[in-house]
Amino acid sequence: MEISFSSLLVLSFLLFLQQTNAITVHVVDGIEKNNPQLIYHCASGSDDLGKHYPKFKDDFHFSFKRNIFFETVFFCHFWWGQKNIRFEVYRETGACGHETGGSNKGICYWLIKEDDFYFAINDNPPPSAFVRKFGW
């Protein structure tokens, strides 16, 4: 079997992209009085990250590599007393992806508070960097 130089070049480029496009998603509990207990469950189509029972300021985070052939989507379902909501915490064409206007360095934060869900990009964002994305 003969492989052309251009095929090797394309394959090398795709492997390079696969290695360099790591994403880290943080889910931070910002509910000071954690009564009732905040619970969340995060997953993608192929990875189940399980249920979590955080304490105030706990930072659950997970990392993965972008899939260059299919769009990667992670969602989380949140429960807090009688309230619950499910939404995508990562989608290449949405949250934590292109929605950030190209300024994303591969890191995004979701902050859960009593009133709403807040989103920020980049590592260790200051409180002023968070923007409201969803209500309960």
TrEMBL record:
Give the residue range of the signal peptide.
1-22
InterPro entries the record matches: Self-incomp_S1
Give a yes or no for keyword Endoplasmic reticulum in this entry: no
Q: What is its main location?
A: secreted
Q: Mention one GO biological process in which this protein takes part, according to its record.
A: rejection of self pollen
Q: Name one Pfam family in it.
A: Self-incomp_S1
Compartments, record wording: Secreted
Give any Gene Ontology cellular component. extracellular region
Query: What keywords sit in the KW lines?
Result: Secreted, Self-incompatibility, Signal
Q: Which PANTHER family match?
A: PTHR31232, S-PROTEIN HOMOLOG (PTHR31232:SF101)
Tell me which family the UniProt entry assigns to this protein: Belongs to the plant self-incompatibility (S1) protein family.
The entry's protein name is S-protein homolog
Which organism does this record belong to?
Solanum pinnatisectum (tansyleaf nightshade)
- Source organism phylogeny: Eukaryota, Viridiplantae, Streptophyta, Embryophyta, Tracheophyta
